[in-house]
Amino acid sequence: MLLIIKATKLELIKIFSKWRTYIGFATVAVLIPLIMWLVRKYGFGLENQALRSLGDSFEFVGSLANGLLVSYYLMNVLWVHFPFFIVLVAGDVMASEGASGTYRLWLTRPIGRFQVITSKFLATFGYTLAIVLFMGLCSIGLGLLIVGGGDLFVFDKGILILSQGDALQRFLLAYLIAAWAQMAVAALAFMFSTWTNNSVGPIIGTYAVIVVSMILAVIKIPALEIIRPYLFVSYFDVFFMPFSDPIPWGEIGVSLLKLTVFILTFFGISAVSFLKKDICT
Amino acid sequence: MILRTVNLSKRFGQRWAVTDLNLAVEPGQIFGFLGPNGAGKSTTIRMLLALIKPSRGSYEFFGQDAHRNSARVLRKIGALVEKPDFYLYLSAARNLQMLGELSGGVSRQRIAEVLEIVKLRDRIGDKVKNYSHGMRQRLGIAQAILNDPELIILDEPTTGLDPVGIKEIRELIVSLARDFGKTIFLSSHLLHEVEQTCTHMGIIDNGRLVVQGAVHDLLKATDFFVTEIILDDPERARAILTDETRIDKITLAENVLKVHAPDEARPEIIARLVQNGLKISAVIPRTSLEDYYLALVQHSDGQ
Question: Given A10, A106, A280, which is nearest B52 (Cβ)?
Fold first, then answer.
């Protein structure tokens, strides 16, 4: 166990020594302040669209567009766009070492293959958690700083207004859940990465699976209902659930459990593949 | 006994790459594992380092079953398998630090020490991608000795090196055994490398061990110490040397005297001929192991 912890630390060093790891962080660090600054300068257009239909029934005083509302909208990137940053690293973790031949040197040390793959998987999870939380921190922190705070106004089977304190707690929960959902993406890319010695394949492969699954998940054809439970993207929206009232803990738990099954399945397949992998040629 | 294999065998599909290999390596030896390309040397080393599983047989390190105590025995072994592949985007020090961690941890001082031994101390902070092939090979040896192992396994460590690099690596190997008391298991297809470097050897061909023992004893027993001396009067030279006890055999061919005697007797033999007024124009130590090796391998192929 101690060796796995040590090896995970070393895997994290490897991951964070590569420039590709910082593409996601850099993009988030550049884009989010830019978006927040634009919102502050030019306003939040969606606010007007959203409120126009409610204008007949309600009277709003002041502005509902604040940093938290922008952050809430920004969470939509977690569906399709943000996984690119996950796949970029997770798809490389196993494949790059296969290509460079470093497994041979690594495995002449007193460490087993299962320990190696487990530590790599845990490190991939560490990266996923780090970048999702970074996105959350930047989004909420810079939102509050640049655009300003206030109550969060969301639509959930009607209008739901959350106090800033309540909203922040729900954001924290939402991003932790989002990290787990993104881990399913990472685990899929990790699995593909185990099968090849070139990281391009896993990146394209994982993205293809995500896009195709999304298409299958959103097309409203009753016949497709049969396969939806077997698509991990069907449970992706779990990170929006903390913004419902009351929080549907049961639904969240079930979705997280199903995502966990996907994650463990992908890891299990990866482990079996790696245990049998020829690392000598 | 540092290493013992018992009927160690490996099959790939229908082909036996290694068959019933029985090796024995004692402490302090520089054991040359010699054989032509494709003889089964790398397959054997991969089995010994648990990179692949044997199809049959067993092997022990330090008297312990290596399969059951894999992690424990690997702690006492340093290895370089063919081309050492490091993390190119990391420095030499970082690479060594990470590899050392897996074997129980290593201090910065120790990293500096081993880099000093392989003459890379001044490049400690450089990324490995900026290293030449020879430097990477030396770094490979540095990682092999990093955790002060009892046994160092080196698989073709001079592959792809220039003559200067080859000489440096060979000197380093001898120094590791002589100055640091390490046991070395050196795989090579280069006859003179084994002859110059090793105290003991095993010859493998077509996956089978042909012979093993002390290099000196094997050569002595099989009459392969030969020095060719070109001089003005070979007949008189033979007569002068007839009472030399360390000479096994003397043969004549035109003006060449072929003396079958151990290497260490050579200076005295030459001195004696010169003292007796003979004019020597050349002394050629034959690559005796080559003759021996070819004889064994040809015999093995014939069977």
Answer: A280
ipTM of the complex: 0.81
DSSP letter at A79 equals T
Strands B151-155 and B183-188: parallel
pLDDT digits (tens, 9 = 90+) for A18-68: 999 999 999 999 999 999 999 888 877 655 555 666 656 666 555 667 889
Residue in B50, B71, B99 closest to A105 by CB? B99
Averaged pLDDT in 10-residue chunks for chain A of 281 residues = 91 94 96 92 68 61 76 87 93 90 88 94 97 95 91 80 91 95 96 92 93 86 84 88 91 95 97 89 68
Residue B102 has its nearest CB partner, among A13, A100, A111, at A111
CA distance B19 to B8: 7
Cross-chain residue pair B74–A7, CB shorter than 8 Å: no
What residues does B3 pair with on adjacent strands?
Answer: B25, B61
Shared fold status for B3-214 and B225-287? no
- Do A105 and B101 make contact, defined as CB atoms within 8 angstroms? no
Superfamily holding B3-214: P-loop containing nucleotide triphosphate hydrolases (3.40.50.300)
Nearest to B99 by CA among B48, B134, B67, B141: B141
Q: Name chain B contacts of A100, Cβ cutoff 8 Å.
A: 85, 87-88
| Closest approach of B47 to chain A, Cα-based (Å) | 11
Determine, for residues B103 and A108 on separate chains, whether the beta-carbon distance falls below 8 Å.
Answer: no
CA angle B152, B155, B158 (to 5 degrees): 105
Domain range list for chain B: 3-214, 225-287
Tell me if B74 and A108 make a contact (CB, 8 A cut-off): yes
pLDDT at residue B21 is higher than 90: yes
Judged by CB atoms closer than 8 Å, whether chains meet at A7 and B85 is answered as no
Please give, rounded to a whole number of angstroms, the shortest distance from the CA of B184 to a CA of chain A. Answer: 16
Q: What tokens appear for A39 in the block?
A: 């919102």
**Residue A228: which H helix or E strand, with range?**
none
The neighbour count for residue A72, using CB atoms within 10 Å, is 23
What is the spatial distance between Cα B145 and Cα B180, in angstroms, rounded to a whole number?
A: 10
Residue of A75, A58, A62 whose CA lies nearest to A243: A75
> How near does any CA of chain B get to the CA of A279, in Å?
8
Distance of alpha carbon A26 from alpha carbon A19, whole angstroms: 10
Class of domain B225-287: alpha beta
Burial of A213-223, coded b for 16+ CB within 10 Å and e otherwise, reads bbebbeeeeee
**Which among A7, A100, A104 has CB closest to B102?**
A7
Compute the distance between CA of residue B129 and CA of residue B142 in angstroms, rounded to an integer: 17
Q: Are B138 and B172 a contacting pair, CB within 8 Å? A: yes
Instruction: Using the structure block, give the residue that is written with the tokens 């106004």.
Output: A153
Which of B98, B145, B152, B154 has the highest number of chain A CBs within 10 A, making it the mutation to test binding with A?
B98
pTM of the predicted model, to two decimals? Answer: 0.83
